[in-house]
Amino acid sequence: MPSGQMKEEILRSYLAKSLERFYPDGVPDDINKVYSDLSSDQLDAISSELEDVLGAIEKNHIKKHKMLDAVFVSELARAPRSKLTIMNLGRPTAKSSSEGEVFLDVRVLQAIFRGALLENLRLGEDRGLSVLLRPGPNDPQKFDSTYLPSAQTEEQRAAIAELVQLIEDARATPGHGAIGDLFAVWGGDDFSEAPWFRMTEFALRSQNLQLRYVGASLFLLAHEYGHLALRHHDRLKSLKKEFPEGDRRDESVYCSAVRDLEHAADLYGLLLISPYSQVNSPPPFLDFLGTAQILTGYRTFFQYGYDLGGFAYTSGEACKYPTNKDRYELVEEVNTALTTARAEEFMRALGQTLGK
Amino acid sequence: MRKFLVLLPLVLIVACEKAGPGPGTVLETEGFKAFPSPRTFDPPGRIYRVDPTGSVFGVTSLKLKSQQGKEEIADYKDTTDISLKQVLETIGVPATKFPVVAALDFERKRRFETKSVSGVREFVDDEQVDQQLPLALGSITIRDDNQYYIIRETVMTDNIDYVSEKSWLVSLGLDAEFQNVVKAHSDLNWGTGKTFSLKKKFDGLRRVWYKAERLVIELPLGAAPGQLPLVKRGKVAPGEFSLSGPVVEQP
Fold it and tell me: How much is the ipTM here?
């Protein structure tokens, strides 16, 4: 791809657009400020983009319906309709209603965006194949409930500044067509400074960032859609009928069942997004850059977006909500089983093909 | 902002029990009901719930600045159930002034017709309500089997005129006593016709009518705890909600 086209794509990317929306003046002076000063045009654009994401989730649901239906205890709705409402109240809102409405506050999107930048900064850009290794005890890939991203103000600054710089550099680098790129490489003293090489570097650097951001947004929306797909609102109604208010203490069967709804929606999100939940997917070890893992988004959401978004860890509700750590660990466990099974399945098939 | 003019006095008529509703009028069409007594409390934004037994409980009040406008609505009628006891309380006459045997009759609900009203209408807009409702209800235990309502508009006045037929007081033999007692507390006009009227002037505006809206509250499923409830508003069906009974404050 010529450098001019790459430049255009980088500057038009979801990542660059989000930077412009959430941090139009670069790194904010007050890092804790929840940026909500969005124009109605910007809100419409966000809404339109996420409606596309939700539309993709709906399509994938239909595509994977049979597989998903075999996994979950509750009967899966065939093609539940959903309607997205983007809110701008500055509250940590991500919820769904019995009428198929999904509500998301831009504060959460901003938190996911910042979380993706922060995660990328912590994991580094040059991890390469190491993203496939199992995380060690002090590895930032491992979920750490003592690490609160909201407290890491300097890291947050550095993460935002990194993307600001990347976009500025991309903007400042001239873009050429294919012939222009050829002459620029041919006529220059340093190949690596030629626009094509610079743009390729920017594209690679922004790719994981964008994947993390899109992945976490996808996971969150898939979680909410999961409540609709798994008919959780009906289930909650019947639970409420079955258990009168006096029987809804935290240790009750009722509360346990309510917590299960959240875990099930998380697992639905994973299975919907993961390529390894469908037959004939490529084996995990061929995903050299860990793209599939990053795109599942749950880690970015639970470790970074959750805390940065200001989501509560406890509430005054009768039933305690499962913690983000509990939720992460369950999804991680299932994801590990899923990828392992897919790898084993592939190796078995390969062995049979080779006549073993 | 809507602005209206005050021109006509408020007149409530205590009609005979079998009187049917009058022709549709502006406030009636809009769904207004009379408070059991004129009052300074219960402004727009007050929320009630009704439990399965029909008991009405106060829930909370939205912190809203209502908009106000003076209003003239000529010759309209509404029917509502209210007892003479409540009327007497409004003008400051305790029912205990009358023989115990009359108590049951005094408490029996009778239909009132409002023939005309002047007053100040106060109201809150959807925008104000929708902003505050989820927050206000988010900190309250929402009971699955209760119905929730919010007062959206009221009409206030500083004077009220009750009119009723004399015949039922005469049949109880209380007409003379009634005249003696009531005269001391209100401007009673017994007259020579079939009806009498009680006029009461308040020392300020009192809320006399209210218009309520049904609240349908759903506790959503969310990505984290503490998600605010989803609240939809709906029209109250005729006879669905009334403040005519006692209101219990939130236990």
Answer: 0.76
